[in-house]
Amino acid sequence: MEKIVSLCKRRGFIFQSSEIYGGLNGFWDFGPLGVELKKNLKDFWWRRNVRERDDMEGMDGSIIMNRAVWKASGHEETFSDPMVDCKECHSRNRADQLPEKNGEKYCPNCGSRKLTEPRDFNLMFKSHAGPLESDDNLVYLRPETAQAIFVNFRNVLDTSRQKLPFGIAQIGKAFRNEINPRNYIFRSREFEQMEIEYFCRPEDGMRLTDYWLEERLKFYEDIGIPRSKIKIHDIPDGDRAFYSKKTYDLEYEFPFGVSELEGIAYRTDYDLGKHIEHSGKPLDYFDEATKERLVPHVVEPSAGVDRTTLALLCEAFDEETVTDEKGHSETRTVLRFHPRMAPIKCAVLPLLKNKPPLVEKARAVASSLKPLMNVFYDEAGAIGRRYRRQDEAGTPFCVTIDFDTIGENGPEKQDTVTLRHRDSMQQERIALADLKAYLLERIL
Amino acid sequence: MEKIVSLCKRRGFIFQSSEIYGGLNGFWDFGPLGVELKKNLKDFWWRRNVRERDDMEGMDGSIIMNRAVWKASGHEETFSDPMVDCKECHSRNRADQLPEKNGEKYCPNCGSRKLTEPRDFNLMFKSHAGPLESDDNLVYLRPETAQAIFVNFRNVLDTSRQKLPFGIAQIGKAFRNEINPRNYIFRSREFEQMEIEYFCRPEDGMRLTDYWLEERLKFYEDIGIPRSKIKIHDIPDGDRAFYSKKTYDLEYEFPFGVSELEGIAYRTDYDLGKHIEHSGKPLDYFDEATKERLVPHVVEPSAGVDRTTLALLCEAFDEETVTDEKGHSETRTVLRFHPRMAPIKCAVLPLLKNKPPLVEKARAVASSLKPLMNVFYDEAGAIGRRYRRQDEAGTPFCVTIDFDTIGENGPEKQDTVTLRHRDSMQQERIALADLKAYLLERIL
Q1: What pLDDT was estimated at residue A427?
Q2: What torsion do the CA atoms of B247, B248, B253, B256 make, to the nearest 10 degrees?
Q3: All residues at 6 or more sequence positions from B336 whose CB lies less than 8 Å from its CB, including other chains
């Protein structure tokens, strides 16, 4: 794990938030490569789940919502961890994570055994909207994006032409005031979710839960996380939320242990029912075929953007020993991202930087690709070193512009380039005219 | 304006946040069409400013940062509006917006003239990170994205290969606890910014401010807001922030008045200087050419996502009287978005829904386009009504699959479709084989 964290900092994937001020526990920033990786993940999720489907609508709700939403959903009452205070040093800790000695729990900060009884600590960040810090103005930062979908169910139904089954999808930030943020960006206090609420008739709920399990496994495969690396945990009766008839957790083997990437929960009509009860609004559905009104059931595939980003980094990270032309062996660090996820799709490299025709041609090639994909132009250093830099960034393709390209070795080689593959380090010759289509086919 | 607000609600562009609970003042949700419009805007800004430029790095910082950031930037001290409390009804109001009668100010809520002296009300949303609601744990929701860029200046410089001048770009949410949110999504409490901090040598600051003015005007033109509609306000000496040597406001004529879309401010070395002073970290730059260390100056083009989205809607909205084949005139509502911004790029319509070969062909055409663009498939209702629905959604192209397409009128017309243009309502015949390239050229 340390190697991944170090690479992420060194190459600009992930930085500590507010690092120059000592950071802030549970908050992270994404650097130039990290923001592209995350954007590729989110854009592909959006394309696959929203744009390519006729039965899905997108939306984007606000982070701060009316407090009534969280009363109705139950979060204000129950979204909490058990806490104890130390009566000596006044530090606060999770009751279920206290150290124990001779069967007695003690404060991890000062060692005192004078602890309060456990009480619930709500994980929602509180704030106030409006000029007074009064109870009337109390608001929460949403601890999940899902509720914005439920409260907009009627609006989306009325403005789209959807019939059951159909879904509403959303990507956005959520906040949880974790007592103990940990495992790098896996459990942070500010994070991003990609959530679908898929509404259906009650009798279709179980079947559609299995359908979404399959869809989501395909998705992970399509971004480079093979099915064999994902553990499907079918949560047994009694361990699920009381309203859920079926829940699958999809888990990935992170370096710090097997941990949840996504949950797929059949939540029945619990959420819409709660909002009907609390708002008094008709969040039901009229079925034209059966002439009945019903409260739709819902299947929720809910994935974490940051967790999946971390899984992509863990899955891609590799070190191998390679031997150069002179017989020296060295360690090659490479991020083997699926081309679709790679922050940089193609590096364009003039063989030499002091030959204007090479530089000019390389810049022209880079410019022609840029409206279509993220391209990196690099002219500094030996070509081998430039390849290695791209290996570390996870760039699947490097294109080298050499003397053949500019026609110095005859017209039959003119306008061909060296295409170098990140994973195999193999090089092939390809016509410039075919380059765009070749790359597009692999990154789309 | 009412017509635009009504269309936005009716067609699913924009909803009130938490509407079923009476909404929340200053917060908005984006529906199925709104989220696509906003995504197109953000994606094009990112492509134009980050991916197509060699001198720009992207990043994505957390919304909650260490409080020290806001002490250093001056926001904790000075990011405020003047407020007065009413001593009778305890309502709080902006001092500069109080109603006046006979030269005396009074409370807009109860009419009392017993008002406190004005005092500063900080516009940053407060919260606490960690288990205690203590001063040590106080955090703010960022009121602007810019500071995340300044505090990451060193990290980005060290992990990229940039030399001055170069920029760092970011899109993300920011929060301001406005006392009086107003003008629909123009001034809300939760909003999104697209900001660039472009770092340069001091002697290049003024010139680059003019360069960015020109770049940004081109950008607005490229999304369908013509140069003639943007008023450039060159803020005079004395009206600018004290550290700014030059500031341009780009203003658009909204229905509620001419208002700011974007500010382009030459902020000198004020921000990096403040963070050097407060963090003690070396946020300076070593110039290899001149062998000197310097604190870069910065030019900041800062645009609002929601404001620009609103400008796109206002600019696109049109009503015209059209006459149908039978001589009846009616009002056509149309959103004349630039194809690049339009939420739906192309609607695919089988002429009749009860002819399986038409439906099958239309679905195949829609599927072939979907990985490349947002496509809407619609088979319900008369073709004229379906066109009108797309006009209201701003869809630039409709493709109709008819009996010619499926070869019922001879092989020479087979695999051609009717392409109908939103703005002119003109129709032309186009070969299916050419459709993808035709559309891509216009929406990219």
Answers
A1: 97
A2: 0
A3: B224, B315, B316, B317, B318, B394, B422, B423
pTM, 2 dp? 0.96
CB-based contact B68 A39, cutoff 8 Å: no
State phi, psi for A195 to the nearest 5 degrees: -125, 145
The pair of structure tokens assigned to A199 is 């509404």
Contact A127 B132 (CB under 8 A): no
Q: Is A279 on the interface with B (CB under 8 A)?
A: yes
Classify B346 as helix, strand or coil: strand
Residues with Cβ within 8 Å of residue A17, at least 6 apart in sequence: A23, A24, A27, A28, A29, B61, B62, B64, B65, B66, B148
E-only strand ranges, B240-364: 246-254, 257-268, 285-287, 292-294, 297-304, 317-323, 329-335, 346-350
CA atoms within 13 A on the CB side of A156: 32
In chain B, positions 47-66, which contact chain A (CB-CB < 8 Å)?
47, 51-52, 54, 57-66
Optimal mutation site among A5, A7, A21, interface B, most CBs of chain B within 10 A: A21
Asked whether the predicted pLDDT for residue A392 surpasses 90, the reply is yes
Alpha carbon B10 to chain centroid distance?
A: 21
Residues 6+ apart with CB under 8 A from B239: none
Rounded CA gap, B279 and B301, in Å?
Answer: 25
- Give A385's contacts in chain B (Cβ within 8 Å): none
Closest by CA to B185, choosing from B343, B315, B30, is B30
Q: Is the dihedral of CA A225, A228, A234, A240 positive or negative?
A: negative
Distance between A171 CA and the closest CA of chain B, angstroms: 10
CB A422 within 8 A of CB A391: yes
Number of Cβ within 10 Å of residue A170's Cβ equals 24
* Number of residues written out for chain A: 444
Cβ-defined contact of B127 to A132 (cutoff 8 Å)? no
DSSP A51: I
Tell me how crowded residue B427 is: count the other CB atoms within 10 A of its CB: 13
Q: Using a CB cutoff of 8 Å and minimum separation of 24, what contacts does A280-285 make?
A: A281/A154, A281/B20, A282/A154, A283/A150, A283/A153, A283/A154, A283/B20, A285/A157, A285/A164, A285/A199
ipTM: 0.95
Which H or E element spans position A275?
helix A270-279
Residue with tokens 């009751």: A95
Predicted local distance difference test score (pLDDT) of residue B353: 94
Structure tokens at B162: 């940039």
So what's the pLDDT on residue A131? 81
